[in-house]
Amino acid sequence: MLSTYWSPIYEVGRHKFVDINTMSGRDLRMFITNHRVEDIERLTLRMKDGLGSKKYKPVDYQQLQAITEAKRFASANIELKIHKTLQAARMTKENTVTRQHRQVWCKEYARLMKAGQRLDLEIQKFLDEEGINNDFLFQMKDNELQLEKERSLFRADTVDPIWQLKDDLRSRLSEMCSYTSQHPLKTQSIQCDLILEQVEYVKKQQKDIIEKLDLECLSVEEEISATRTQAWLSSTEEIRSSLQQIPEEVLNLECPYPDLKESLLKEFQSLDEKYSSRLQNITERLNGLDRCCGWSETDHLIFQSIVDQYPHDMKDRRVLYMDMLHRLFPHKSRQELSDHERHWDWYRFTVEQKKAVLQGWTRDRTDLLMKAVMTLEEACSTYDEEVALRMDRRHQQKVCAELKEKLRQWRAHQEEVARLEGAIAARKQEEEEDRLRAKQQKDEARRNLQKEKIKRYYTQKQSRRDELERRDRQRLEELKGLLAEQARKDQERVQFRQDLLQQRRKEKESQALRLQEQEEERQRRLENLRNQVAVVADLDPVRLMGATKSSKARQNIGAEEEVALQRPLFHLYTYTDTEILSDQRVRIEQALRQAGLHNTFYAKDVLSNINPPRPPRRDMESTLFQNLS
Question: Does the keyword field hold Lyase (predicted)?
């Protein structure tokens, strides 16, 4: 129980709360008090006798009441601020949600506009492609004309009389307002009663017409819904019945192996049984569900449209469309909306599951059909190959016997041909040997003659090589002499250039020294001129710390009472606008700025080459850049 006390020390107003677990021995002694009945009786007697006590002081209830009121007022202010903050937060959240809804509405509106335009184009394209010989198009156009006539007749019978009655009432009211003094009050009340009766009759008639139209619209919608449901069920049944039948391609194909075809038919039956059971379970579950999930057709259509507006990848998608549904259906709680959403998701999942089962059935059936056709074709081709192989074997045996006989005869002929060719080859070999001996002798004589010619050629070549070497040596000696003479001339030319460069350097140094002396002389003369025109002022601390004319003028000290408002306080020595615009540099700079060329190098070059209208004084000319150069 001690762990539930305050921790460790908190002050609230004038009271202090101490945590027993963390208090010291002194605090514990202060916390534990001894209570005795005699002390209370003794204190009561002292208070009755008019005696006070140092431990207990009288309570100032007015001060406590003031403190309580101040605390209550502060608490009320804090509560008001919290209420305003919560209200501002709710408004901010509402504005944020409304902005997100507006973005979604704009996107959905643009998407529906594009879809409507695309649908109109497809309809127009369909009408253009079908041509004028289609009876369906003529029938649709006749229906459209008939509906337009009925709409015009309905407008003439119901809407136009209401507008006419409205105009009559306005005219009668204007007449009654303008001629109230001429007609008695009783006559006016009778006319008003007649008008009200007529208006009530028209209202009742319009109400009956609207109820009748609503009933017709509801019946048409139910008929369309029933037709759509029947068409969907019929299409589903057609698909199911077509899938449950064994394909005629498999039945009509011939198979030389009966066991193979029987196994293929059993495979089709097992596939149909598997998907039929699954489809039957899904259909039974779908029949037990309501398409509108317990709501009306209109409310369910609104719910479906609102949910489809918000994309699945949008942040806080469910929060947004639940907020919109709560706005559209304020009479339904969030639990009802969540239940309807869950039922609708289950219904859509069941429908998608049924579509997936039908698609899987169709896909597996198509794959099985293709495999069955390929298998039967391969079986037929294999059977044909076996038959052809047996026929080929018989034919090959017959051909082999004929070839053996022919081979025996061919070998006898080949042996006789080989004997004759051997005799002919022996005679040819003898003739070839005689020819080769004669040729070798002729080649030996020709090689000896060629060796003699080669020897004479090498001797002549060596003599020519010696002559060329002698000429090259002589030419080399001549070139060495020419190069030595050229080197001597180059040395003299280099020495001359060095002397000339030294002379020019000395001339530049003497010229720079002369220019420096001239510049020093010029600076000395300028310094003398500055000393001559320098201002010499006496030391006057009183004048320095005293007030000036401008400060007195700002403080209106010593100023006359009547001073002209436009009178200048000081004389300003500067240029007028005429003098500034007369400067050619200003006009050229403005022209370049208007042309957008004032920051280019061309503008800098042009402005640097323009002289001022008045040449500067010689003492104002800067020599900084001259010294730097």
Answer: no
State whether 423 and 506 are in the same domain.
no
Is the pTM value of this prediction over 0.85?
A: no
Which own/partner contact pairs does 306-311 have at CB distance under 8 Å and 24+ positions apart? 307/341, 307/344, 309/104, 309/105, 309/108, 310/104
Regarding whether 394 and 256 lie in a shared domain, the answer is yes
- Please list, residue by residue across 275-303, b when 16 or more beta carbons sit within 10 angstroms of its beta carbon and e when fewer do: beeebeebbeeeeeeeebbebeeebbebb
| Backbone φ and ψ of 564, nearest 5° | -65, 135
Residues 426 and 356 in one domain: yes
CA distance 310 to 97: 13
H or E stretch at 251: helix 248-252
| Residues 419, 485 share a domain | no
Instruction: State the virtual CA torsion across 122, 124, 129, 131 in degrees, nearest 10.
Output: 150
CA dist., res. 424 & res. 259, Å (int): 71
Q: Which helix (H) or strand (E) holds 262?
A: helix 258-287
CA distance 224 to 297: 12
pLDDT in tens, 196-225: 777 787 778 778 788 887 777 777 777 776
Regarding whether 253 and 320 lie in a shared domain, the answer is yes
Domain assignment present for residue 495? The answer is: yes
Indicate whether 505 belongs to any domain. yes
Return the pLDDT at 19. 46
**321/390 same-domain check:** yes
Please count the residues of the chain.
Answer: 629
| Enclosing domain of residue 360 | 244-430
Among candidate residues 206, 170, 176, 174, the one with its CA nearest the CA of residue 189: 176
Assess whether 363 and 260 both reside in one domain: yes
Q: Which two tokens stand for residue 270?
A: 């097992």
DSSP β-bridge partners for residue 9: 18
* Contact predicate 299/331, CB 8 Å: no
Q: What is the pLDDT of residues 411-448, one digit of tens each?
A: 888 888 888 887 888 888 888 888 888 888 888 888 88
